[in-house]
Request: fold
Amino acid sequence: MSLLMVHEWMHYSALKNELSSPEKKISDGNLASHLKTLKANDYIVEKKEFVNNKPHTTYKATSAGRKAFEVHLNALEALIRGQDRSG
Reply:
């Protein structure tokens, strides 16, 4: 999700490359599972098309996804600062 916060649209293979490291590559199944969950929660939209007769799938964060990510970051920052929201 963090990648989609800084890129308007990202191609599937670009996401996979960015999320992989030389030591550990993300599997297609793992990435597809995460994208499916994000899509089911309306956090991202998917655009499928063909470019030069090859499938070209791109993803974009929705307004709801951006808002949820900001809420998540704020909660992480509060934890880091030691601010317990439960009172």
